[in-house]
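Moderator note: this is an archived Q&A kept for reference. The question asked for a predicted structure of one protein chain; the sequence and the answer are reproduced below.
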Amino acid sequence: MNETLKKLVEKIEKLKSKDINEAATKDYLIRPFFEYLGWDFSNPEEVIPEESDSSGKRPDYSLYINGQQKIFIEAKALNSKLNDTKMINEKMGYCTNSQVPFLIITNGLLYNVYYSRLEGANKDKLLFDFHLEENVDEDIINKLKKNAVSKDELLNFAQNTFILTNVKKTLESLFQEPTKKYISIITEKMKEIVGYSFSENDIKEALQYFNIQINMDSVPESIDTIDSKSEQKSWTIEYQFNEGKWDTSFALYKKLINLLEKEGLMFEQNPTKFYIGLISKSDNKNFCQIHGQKRGLKIWIGLKINDLTEQEKLLVKDVSKIGHWGMGQIEANVNSIDDLNWCINIIKKSY
């Protein structure tokens, strides 16, 4: 982690127990973070605090590039929760009224970045989030730098995420309810590739088993300019846990692997920069991705939210429309041994 970010995290640790208010959080944590990203809080042409919109609502900060509002920042006290639906709806209203593409809601530790032009409920417009105390991806943070926003790197990422998720949604719709034209295309292509085809009913049934996954850590800044030279490095399992120094979460990961193996699951562990993928030995399917955090595990599982029971739905998060590192469509947070029991049952469904 960058030295400036390390010092900011150290400051957060000291302030947590003091239960500081919103004003102190803004001064001690939020403003320094955005200044690190290159935003000049002393320049009224770049950062305006509590600027009223057409309806009289005032976000904590408005960030400008060349006279255009690019980002609204809504600040909360350090120990505040950020998932209140009413609050999110109100703050997203700022963006709608002023035609601003991005909203950041933060308590100085957790940063939730929303893209106002996504479809659906406001809470579903979450583009990505990051937690400064965890194994944070600085490539994601860098998208918020003034220079990156100026070059529309954040906007390109958001638009490409929107395109990819909607292409995925469309294809899955075709798989679940294929038209005759779509089946005809598959039939002709199959004949071209293997020399024969199957009946319409056979193809329909086979399509029901398809589940498209998008690996969000490989989404390009611009779909038109994909860099074919991907980063080459041999990652380790320990890397996900601060080279094994995060004892609590590393022990939790080892326990999870042990319990899955006892359940009879046969898989390989494939560490990458952003997560450890669990790949089935029987069909080579990456059915689960695990991201190490300081105090627990963030797990993406290769299921759809409707594959779960009503009780299980309460325990996970649907991230099918949200940019995230793993490929799975549901996200589980495991912070204790007790969490492993229900999480393992869901992972087994994916396997």
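Archived answer notes: Residues 153-176 form the longest helix (24 residues).
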